Amino acid sequence: MTVSLDRVSFTYSSGGAGLEDISLDIREGELLAVIGPSGCGKSTILKLIAGFLIPQSGRITIGGEDMTQVPPRKRDLGIVFQNYALFPHMTLAANVGYALKLRQVPAAEAGERVREALGMVGLGHLADRLPRSLSGGQQQRVALARALVFRPRALLLDEPLSALDATLRGEMRDEIARLQRLHGIATLHITHDQEEALSMAHRVAVMRDGRILQVDTPERLYARPVSRAVAAFVGQANLLDGVVIDPLNVRTPIGNLACGAHAFPRGMAVTVLIRPEAIRPVESAAGPNRFAGSITRDRFLGALRRFDFTLANGVRLTLETDRHVAPPGAIELPPAAVQVIATGQEGAGRSAETKNVNPAVPA
Ligand code: ADP
Ligand code: MG
Fold first, then answer.
1. pLDDT one-digit tens code per residue, 27-37
2. Is the pTM of this model over 0.90?
3. Which CATH code is given to the segment(s) 3-219?
4. Ligand 1 lined by 17 (C-beta under 6 Å)
5. 215: how many CB neighbours lie within 10 A of its CB?
6. Ligand 1, atom nearest to 37 Cα
7. Alpha-carbon distance 258 to 252, whole Å?
């Protein structure tokens, strides 16, 4: 079922930052990831949908039904938190069956559904174990089975993988994505890990300071960020301050560049985005959008190499190439790879403080 937030605003009573005018749909069958830096309001969104918090204004609907004031228990949502809080004295089967007991599902049917749910997460053979005899990843699978077993109207996941080590996290990503698609259940997946979001979600919402900056498919978010803040947060990015010359040219601290077509007016202050993998190593700096410089850092990353390339005027760009490519003495910025985007209010402070270049953003 579709879950909708319609112009929802919320402020904590202590005056803590909250959410400002959030409109967002988690569509039927969709896995929507919400990403953003710590403290930007991700968990607050989840708590509002779950009913642990009530917004000061706006509406929350599930399947078209107004839920804004409905208590959490009556919303019928499956929720998984980072610390999965299984009942330590209950077997896995009892943990998973608990929600059915609360809902007074007859014992025979409940038993069947618990078996099915544990089977789904690959733990059918451990039904009689206690949680403490399981690994972290297995416990998180139980939490997932527990959230799915009562056939909730939607699934809410708040950083469910953050406590797991890298290998398990990768496996669980695939597992959650598989289960979500199998059930076709509307799912909100909160994470601070952009790679997790991009790899699992049908759409991703990027948040900052209690607001949503962009909601889009992973591909569009990466290829067409609407603002500097989104570009900086999603993937690696070279960001330059720019001023529009005309629809195909922009002035930057490294010179005038031919750019991809855009609709910003002449003279407007913009941000120029160049993704590291779109920069071409070349033999000579002769020609448009080409620059000489030197490699100031060389990182071997397995399948690829990431170079810091410092131009004559001191501006540093990050490029990524196939691992076999020798460190280049010159680079080309193909016009299509030079994207003009809005600097946006949220980018203003940042561009001032980082001057002309914002090197690769930490993952
Ligand atoms: P995220 O999940 O993105 O890390 P949260 O939604 O938990 O962020 O928090 C958003 C903002 O609201 C933060 O600035 C946080 O300090 C504040 N906040 C969260 N919970 C409370 C609370 N119970 N009381 C007051 N402020 C809170
Ligand atoms: Mg949180």
1. 999 999 999 99
2. no
3. 3.40.50.300
4. yes
5. 17
6. 3
7. 11
